[in-house]
Amino acid sequence: MGAPTPLLEPREGIPPVIADEAALARVIAAFAAGSGPVAVDAERASGYRYGQRAYLVQLRREGAGTALIDPVACPDLSGLGEALSGVEWVLHAATQDLPCLREIGMVPSRLFDTELAGRLAGFPRVGLGAMVEGVLGFVLEKGHSAVDWSTRPLPEPWLRYAALDVELLVDLRDALEKELDRQGKLEWALQEFDAIASAPPAEPRKDPWRRTSGMHKVRRRRQLAVVRELWETRDRIAQRRDVSPGKVLSDAAIVEAALALPGNVHALAALNGFGHRTGRRQLEQWQAAVDRAKALPDSALPQPGQPVTGPPPPRAWADKDPAAAARLSAARAGVTALAERLNMPQENVISPDTVRRVCWEPPKTVDARSVELALAGYGARPWQVELVTPVLVDALSAKGAQTP
User: Fold this and answer.
1) Alpha-carbon distance 298 to 321, whole Å?
2) How far apart, in whole angstroms, are the C-alpha atoms of residue 214 and residue 313?
3) Minimal CA–CA distance to 88: which of 6, 169, 149, 207?
4) Burial of 2 (0-12, 13-18, 19+ CB in 10 A)
5) Phi-psi region of 30 (alpha: psi -120 to 50; beta: other; left: phi over 0)
6) Are strands 5-7 and 65-69 parallel, antiparallel or unpaired?
7) 93 burial via Cβ count (<10 Å: 0-12, 13-18, 19+)
8) Residue 63 CB-density burial (10 A; 0-12 exposed, 13-18 middle, 19+ buried)
């Protein structure tokens, strides 16, 4: 292949942004009448706005061309979702875009994920730009993925970038399908895509404040209560103002206040993250949150660590259960060898969490059938069960898990 060709303009130019019901109705009719798969992408304003809503939706389909839709002006796209029901949707890194598409009424019944296809096919770099260049020989413009897509009106260079993101997605899908078929992996990919399309929406995370960056420094329960109180106060403010929580108060500042337990606004203002740019009223609301946490009775303080479901961290296995540690070591070695043979990342061959769970609590009788049932019970797809069962039977039996 020669030097890659820069892709500078969408084939039909930059389409107008769809921002009213009449224009949306025309798009729905055009896409319903189109043929073949539909390329779908969404742009969010992560780091700028609260939540993960979509601020632009891009689609392209043979016979319909490209459409750019403003989901702020047209917040209900369920009519478009219904028009594309049964059609295969082509997305890149589908699990990132599906939640925000679901919010506006767009839920695929079938999909093809070009990023996941690239992983299964053994590509070393699976970003959209790298894939389009490596597989199709075109260079996509970079540089607008992390902009504030809630900006209105959207600048023309951003719209060009957004339209180009779906320009070659179906071509990429077709090339990857051929490559997966050549490698004997197409059926595996189809099972993976079905699993993504049929997965229920993710449950809200329990105690999301525990994911504050730098939490490992916070040890005492009173300090944990300060993190919780500041995190929840910040979240309410961010939601009300529709800005990213990090723009209201940094994680580092929350942890700093929790460790210091400041007694008044003056002490709080001296901490990193609460400096000269923080107004008196803001300082008072943060200090009030600290004071609320300090006033809690011991019985209302959060427990350290999250309630653990499943096995302990692997580093603790050697002390807690040396036999389980030996099983895990053998299983990991087996999965590594299998992944290398298949030219695929280990986590796509089988989820590391599934391997840990099976090794920590193996079936009472270690044989192919019991291991197959255990893997399927943890959500492994049929192709994974078939490939990984012999590896785990070996690792769970005496011959696979001899301690050195």
Assistant:
1) 34
2) 19
3) 169
4) exposed
5) alpha
6) unpaired
7) middle
8) exposed
Tell me phi and psi for residue 360, to 5 degrees. -75, -45
Q: What single-letter DSSP state applies at residue 135?
A: I
Name the DSSP class of 3: S
Q: Please state whether beta strands 54-62 and 5-7 pair in parallel, antiparallel, or not at all (unpaired).
A: unpaired
User: What are the structural domains, with CATH classification, of the chain?
Assistant: 5-198 (3.30.420.10), 208-300 (1.10.150.80), 314-396 (1.10.150.80)
Contact 269, 278 (CB under 8 A): yes
Average pLDDT of the segment spanning 51-56? 96
pLDDT 10s digits, 140-156 = 877 777 899 999 999 99
pLDDT at residue 348, as a whole number: 97
Least-confidence region, from 273-277, 321-325, 365-369: 273-277
DSSP state of 213: T
pLDDT tens per residue, range 356-379: 999 999 999 999 999 999 999 999
